Known about the structure:
It is a single chain. It is built from 19 helices and eleven strands. By secondary structure, it is α+β, with helices and mostly antiparallel strands. The model is unreliable at 1-12 (pLDDT under 50).
Amino acid sequence: DLGTYRNLITMPQINPPKYVRQILFGLQARGHLAYLVGGCVRDVIMNITPQDWDICTSALPEEVMELFPGSRPTGLEHGTVTVIIGSKSAEVTTFRTEGDYRDHRRPDSVTFVSDLITDLGRRDFSMNAIALSADGMLADPFDGVSDIEKRCIRCVGNPKLRFTEDALRMFRALRFSARLGFTIEYDTLSAIEECAELASELAPERVRDEVEKILLTTRPETMSAAISFGLMKRYISGAGWKTPNFADLASMPRKPLSRWVAFSIMLRKYGYIPSASEFLKQLRLDGRTIRCCTDAEVLLSQDPPSDSLGWKKLLNRYGVDTVTCAVQAYSVIMGIDCEKELRAVLKSGECFSLKHLAVTGDDLLSLGLKGPELGEMLKFLLEYVMEYPENNKREILLELAKYSEES
């Protein structure tokens, strides 16, 4: 009975999508308790449109799957089923309590329960431990609404215990702080400092994902706190000789590739890591990001080109992504703004790659060229066109190829 819960607030303005209401009312029609829970409730309280809708219920996973045919058992060991309604889906998780977290990552055991408050009590922060019924009533046993109003991040229960259970929650606290602009409550912040060494036991992929989310916020300087607390000690062993101004990353496009490149090069430049590429490899970044970072670091050791031909040569050698990231890094790290020059070259449509050359390998085959000679001729023609862009025309290039071959 919701009437027995503390801090109930009627919120009739909350109107979940139709498919979400179908799931809630479908479970209730079978006599099960069902509530929206977690981030989606936090977001609607803050007038933010939720990206995902999560539901908790007293129904067991098999009962949920029986009620909604076609559902996917995406986490049965944790009581989670993905319910699909048309083209939409939502995660439905059975009320549960959790055993010990001996690896500081996941519970050794999960026990399904019938009590909502017990389920909310296992969650990380008070703002994420709020449940919303289908008729618009909030169950808020840990004063999450009050913390949202105060723009405060506070652990549910003992913060040290919460972080000992799952060390990733320390990164999540910083990420929510960066994303929402909330302050981390004193005891919670103190527990992060005390438990920071546990972060070394986390899988690199989990750390990578949280770091990326922080970097993509409007407050990427939050990474300074993660580093100073020791959360990144497994990957950043050095103290550095100067604190990077990660706040400057906020001026860059909100794209993972751009911000990872600038972030890792900043760390390398100020002595926090010996190698930007090795740092990214340890965090299991993809090969494209690692290559882009490695090449951009080389470009940052050089002066930017002084003319359009120089830019086209760089674009030909390193590709658009790498040169673009390097130029953005020039701006935030070196204080050199040359984005206008690069944009002018890209906007001009002038050829800097074989893809845009007016002749192809097949065209040169018809002239009798093949093997290494064909490749050398394509390279020659591309270099010619980069210097004389107005001559990137099929007939001109074929004539030039004939003449060069004959001579």
